[in-house]
Amino acid sequence: MTEAGGLAFATSPQAVGFDPQRLSRLDDYMSGMVEAGQVAGTSTLLMRHGQVVAFQTHGKARIGDAEPLGRDAIFRIYSMTKPVTGVALMILFEQGHWTLDDPITRFLPELSDLKVFTGMDDQGEMVVEDAVHPPTMRELMSHTAGFGYGLFDFHPVERAYRAAGVLRADSLDNLVQRVARMPLMFQPGREWFYSVATDLQGLIVERISGQSFGAFLSERIFEPLGMVDTGFHTRPDNQHRLTAIYRGDGTGGLKEATTAFDMPINDFTQPPRMEGGGGGLVSTATDYARFCQMILNRGELSGTRILAAASVDLMATNMIPDAVLATANPLRLLPFNPAFGFGLDFAVMLNPAAIGAVEGRGTLSWGGGGGTWFWIDPENDLVFVGLIQRLADPVSDAFRKEARALVYAALTHPEK
């Protein structure tokens, strides 16, 4: 077996239950999207039974480059940072620093007097009421605490977050101060909304550990797992491997993005103003695959244990209340329902057959606003990491759906 980024390659796709001809359709799709000018480059890594089944790159790190995209290319992974933040917090959970039903005000006293949005008055001002209880750690990690984000434009609280520049804070301490001035979108535990909650988790890690968030991640996760290229900025010796980021130009082509979510694109060559737990990391396909394989192995990789198996199982348990799953709400980023929920910083597939999904029961997943995505399928013992360089839109969303369909269409021996 050869090695890539410390990962062992399977001797053949057939050896781990894949039809190579069918699997080549995934490669054809990715190369075709590059040739069609829909993305600058793609990097996809599929693992099963702890071995790399397929690892392919197409295109360039930057349109116009002479060299092809390398396997060691570094991507802005945006919200794929969130599960890493969750693992950091679970390390402290195992040390007895907090429990799921602790109020977050234990660590974030700035949020002790939160109000809850109930509507708008005749003067266009928000009407609020008292929160029935402070959000809990469980609610914070499952996006059911009621916080906004400032990325969207379809709710008064969201617009207030954006106007206040919550995500433009220059530190995590400053961020929580800005959040404290905003009402919650709903009473804690009563709904699901994608939010700034994971950045608040990063601040809790800092306050419990006494370290900067980046230092904690490096010491407790990245270095033990051999994630040598993952962090909040690139090292001087690998800045040339950082890929550019693009968006659709409105005419079927691409243009380089200078802003994302109404904020300047961080070039990641210098330390950021804020080490955000919600979307601040860069990584490579092999680094992030090592993280995913650790989760698939229930907390361990190559003899190094990051979490206890029980802690990973807890992260993979749905935390959205049944009453919320039983109803639809256009505020949710994804159509959560009794078959598809959200655990602690991961989406979790509860009953794939019920909603026509092809992955295994218990699959964990998420993605990033720059077009990156992953899933971890414990039932079929596989991991997939997909990295592209296109800000979230219908085209980048199509990559995720197509990759899933093509991978499982090539799987000849499902389950372990």
Automatic annotation (TrEMBL):
<feature type="domain" description="Beta-lactamase-related">
    <location>
        <begin position="26"/>
        <end position="408"/>
    </location>
</feature>
<dbReference type="InterPro" id="IPR050789">
    <property type="entry name" value="Diverse_Enzym_Activities"/>
</dbReference>
<dbReference type="InterPro" id="IPR012338">
    <property type="entry name" value="Beta-lactam/transpept-like"/>
</dbReference>
<dbReference type="Pfam" id="PF00144">
    <property type="entry name" value="Beta-lactamase"/>
</dbReference>
<dbReference type="InterPro" id="IPR001466">
    <property type="entry name" value="Beta-lactam-related"/>
</dbReference>
<protein>
    <submittedName>
        <fullName>Beta-lactamase family protein</fullName>
    </submittedName>
</protein>
